[in-house]
Every structure is written in C-alpha cells, then in structure tokens.
Fold this protein.
Amino acid sequence: MSENMTRTHQVQIGVASFVALVLAGAALLLFGWRTRKPVVLQGAVTVQDADTRKERPIADVEVSADGGLAIHPVSSDSSGFFKIELLRSVKRGQAVTLEFRHPEYKPLDVHEFVGDKLYVAHMVPVSSRTKMPSNQPLIRVGNVRVRYSIKALTEINVGSAVQTFEVENKGNVACKGQHPCSPDGKWKAALGSASLDAGPGNELRDARASCIAGPCPFTEIESNHLPQGEQLISVTARNWSDTATFLLEAEVFHPMVSDIIHESYPVIFGEGLNFTLPSAAEGVNIQAEIDGQTVIFPLGPSLFLSWASCNARVNPDQTRVYRCALKPGYRFQ
C-alpha cells in the first residue's frame, strides 16, 4: 500500500511540475508580448512625376493601415514625412497595406511588408490641371523674385572724443616707500586720471592715451588695454619726474539696427516653385509679373497667394523651406 501511495505522490508531483512549466511559459509569452515595442513605419509622400525634380512633397495626406493594423491614422507634414505606429501584435515580415488619402490626389494603396525600411509613396493628382474654357488663356506668371529683410547691426562714426590732463609732480625726489613711486621704487611719483563720455546711445572705440608734453620718458599709462565699446572710459597715468601732460582720445560710434533688404530668385520646376530663407528673415514677399504687370504679394503666416498654393517647413537649423504650386488658370513663362 505504501508503494501505491508513493507512485501516486510521484504522479501528483509530475502533474504539478508540468502545470507550473506551462504557466511559466505562458507568463513569459505574455510578458514578452507586453514589453515588445510596437513597430513604427516611417516614410514620405510626394507627387508622382517622371521628372524627379517635380516630385513635390505632399502635406496633410492621411496615412492608415488596412485591417486596423495601425493604432491610429496619421497625417504627413509639410515635407511629406509620416510616421505610423502599428499594433503590438504586428510582426516584422507581415504583409501590410498602407492607404494614402488626400482630396486633391487619387487614392493610393501600397502593398508592403513590415520591415526596417523607408516607405515612399507617389500620389497622382486628381487632375493635373482644371480644364479652362478654350476661349480663356492661361495667366502668365514670370520674373518671380523673393524679397525679405534681415535686421543688421550697423555703426556710424559720429566723431572723436578728446581730453587732455596734467599730472603734476616734482622730479628727483626720493620715494622712501611712500606710495606712489616710480616702477623701480626709487622716485616719488604722482597719479592723474581723465575720462571720456560718448553720450547716451554711443560707444567709444579705438581709445588711446599718450604723454604729449613734459618728461614723457619718466611716465607710463597704468593700463595698456583701454576698454572698447563702452559709453564711458577712464585712464590713469603715473609720473615720477616733473609735471607732464597727457592726451586721451577715442572714436565715437553710434550703433543702430537697420533692416537690410535681400532679394533672391526661386527655383521653378514645372508648376512648382521652391526657395529657402535664413532663420532671421522677416517681411517675406514675392514679387512677380502677372500677365506683364509687376505685383508684390506679401507672404504672411497663412502663406496665401492668389496664384499659387504654398506650404513651408522649418529645418533643424531654423532655416525655412517654401514650396508653392500654381493654381489652375496660371502658368510660368
């Protein structure tokens, strides 16, 4: 009977161990599934064209995955870039259909496999040009230029500031340790100072001080490096002989901020216009000849032009990229 009990006990232990192993495996699988990072697909959307220079990025394209494989749909930015996150259950190598939708372009479904790659989609416009009445010619757009301003600091020399001063002393008098003395400590010396004021809003540049009269070989300027770019400067001179005269002089500059106007020509490919601007650019406008008449179009935050649709994006270095596409009824000449 004890032998039967022993066998029963062994069976129970074996069953318990098997159950424990199954539960542990299930727990590991569940933990791995929960901690596995979801796959993220990234890519770009452009206009389909045989000329790669005309493959303009398309903004605001809704990107989704067929079958609900994506967590949620996303939209492309002004550079055409998109990043879509798939469900955790989606594995690499699994088939996926990416759907691209935009009201101005034909629907596009791209059949791909989930993997570590860049997904580039090319969309076809619903109509390359809206049909115009045969008796209505296209409006010509030519001689397009981009104008903008950049604030720059300029300086105007408004004159000079001059000041003379004397340092009175009597030569050949022993110092005897009474400050001030000559540099070698032998002769009694005297100190004298003078200052210059450029006035409010002005700065002093190229300041210089020199002995101009008296026993100049027995004098020195206390500092060989006078301050620059300040409204007020001062200088001290040391004299260990008879009375000497000094001259302090500097150029007076008035700094001012002004708007420097810049002009550039955009690059045109087909019906698209492209240009870039530095980060400090302000007051952007586009000058163009519309059917031979020169017109200036301010390009405000809404990027509205009567003859083109524009978008812009900011690069990591804060420079800006602008892209404009002609509206129906217009053509570049």
